[in-house]
Amino acid sequence: MSKANWIDWLSTGVLGGAAAIAMLLGFGTGGAAGASLRARGDYLVHIMDCTGCHTPGTLSGKPDLAAFLSGSDIGFRLPGGIFFPSNLTPDPRTGIGGWSRAEIARALRTGRIPGGRELAPIMPWRSFAHLTPRDALAIATYLKSLPPIRHAVPGPQPPSAAARLPAMTLVLPGRRP
Ligand code: HEC
User: Fold this and answer.
1) Which atom of ligand 1 is nearest to the CA of 117?
2) Which DSSP state fits 94?
3) Are 162 and 77 within 8 A, CB to CB?
4) Global pTM?
5) Which residues, other chains included, contact 67 with Cβ-Cβ below 8 Å and sequence gap of 6+?
6) 173 alpha carbon to ligand 1 midpoint, in Å?
7) What is the mean pLDDT of residues 69-95?
8) Residue 18: is its pLDDT beyond 90?
9) What is the whole-number distance in angstroms between the Cα of residue 14 and the centre of ligand 1?
10) Ligand 1 site, CB within 6 A
11) How far is the CA of 88 from the centre of ligand 1 (A)?
């Protein structure tokens, strides 16, 4: 190997190594790499329509963007119960502030939340299961960076609660609600 080739090879190796380390650092939240992970999450959250369900007012046609992603006051009534799109801001009491980024990413890719419950299928996690691990982490990084908003949303409710809670009812053709 000539000296010039050798230097070439060495610098490619060193630069390649540095790029790999930068990529790994991208999995942290700090620095430029963390910022680009957050930017990727911002992009994904917007094109994947999380706000369509998780921002209050959207389901009734008046999204309250000042309360972005803080959960819906209208639930979805399905055969298995009534499910309210949760508060996705990092509020520790009413949102997902107590979840790690890995736990959020796992919920998106497997539908399993801390405690082991499987999310109702109206939350499109079966589609989100196709996210790459890095994109799921990018979404989690973005959600963790949102301002925490205190907004309590009911957890899963039995179908019998329909009389007292506002919920959209999805009815199969030929069936009664
Ligand atoms: C079609 C409506 C809909 C869309 C779109 C949607 N979600 Fe959801 N999501 C829900 C509902 C309803 C629940 C509650 C389900 C349950 O409790 O079983 C939920 C639950 C969750 C949870 C669990 C939170 C908790 O406290 O248990 C997370 C995390 C989540 N969604 C993230 C997202 C993200 C991120 C997006 C966009 C990439 C998104 N969702 C898009 C309806 C939706």
Assistant:
1) 18
2) T
3) yes
4) 0.85
5) 55, 56, 57, 149, 151
6) 25
7) 96
8) no
9) 42
10) 45, 48-50, 52-54, 76, 83, 85-86, 88, 96, 104, 107-108, 113, 119-120, 122-124, 139, 156
11) 8
